[in-house]
Known about the structure:
Helix content is 27%, strand content 23%. The protein is of the alpha+beta class.
Amino acid sequence: MAKAERDQSITIKTAEEIAKMRVACQLAAEVLEMIAPHVKPGVTTGELDQICHDYIVNVQQAIPAPLHYGEPPFPKSICTSVNHVICHGIPGDKKLKEGDALNIDITVIKDGYHGDTSKMFHAGEPTVAGKRLSAITQQCLYLGILEVRPGAPLGNIGKVIQKYAHANRYTVVEEFCGHGVGSRFHEPPQILHYYSKDSDKILMQPGMIFTIEPMINQGKRHLKILPDQWTAVTKDHKLSAQWEHTILVTDDGFEILTLRAEEAGWRSTL
Ligand code: MF3
Ligand code: CO
Ligand code: CO
């Protein structure tokens, strides 16, 4: 795609759209808060899906965006990616066991707009390796967010994420990226979590809304997709972690639309 075409397809949200995105994003964040006490050894990822589905549909009166999304249609309402699953794990009847690390990824549609966010959880007491990978991956997300400001090249985001991951002897998954989000689940631009000079061709502008969602591996970066055509796992079966926020580019920086109450002090953790 030529640069001009690619730039044209990035939507700049109006004040009305931004207001709707704030609502959808806060609902997605609330699902992650709601599900937290349910994540413990013995629960199945299918049960977590059912609880989130019912909450989104009945309490929030919103739509779980993953359900029937894509080709083949995603069969569940949330993604649950356990241990060596990188992303797009399909909830099922396997029980979580003590020390499992998992990402829960929530996307809700409210009033036609998508809010997309994910975080890591641990069933019971985290393992040392799982806790460290999860913490470093969350820092990667926050460092990426701090690069968001009008006029900055998109490439700045991947640059800092990659640098911090590598400094901690981890690798960055390259096959999946962040994305513009709004009335569509996935829209331009792509937000790479590693540095590529191509991504410097697009400058951030106020009113852009996109996700940053680094997937960071304990071992090699390579992945394979399971026969279900969704589940992405590390080739070497080592751990992978992911955190995701939906970000608005503002006139003087950024707004984290999917911020949770527990993250109020996030800047002081850096
Ligand atoms: N929420 C994921 C993302 O961040 C996409 C999930 S697509 C699904 O981009 F179909 F697997 F739900
Ligand atoms: Co996303
Ligand atoms: Co997501």
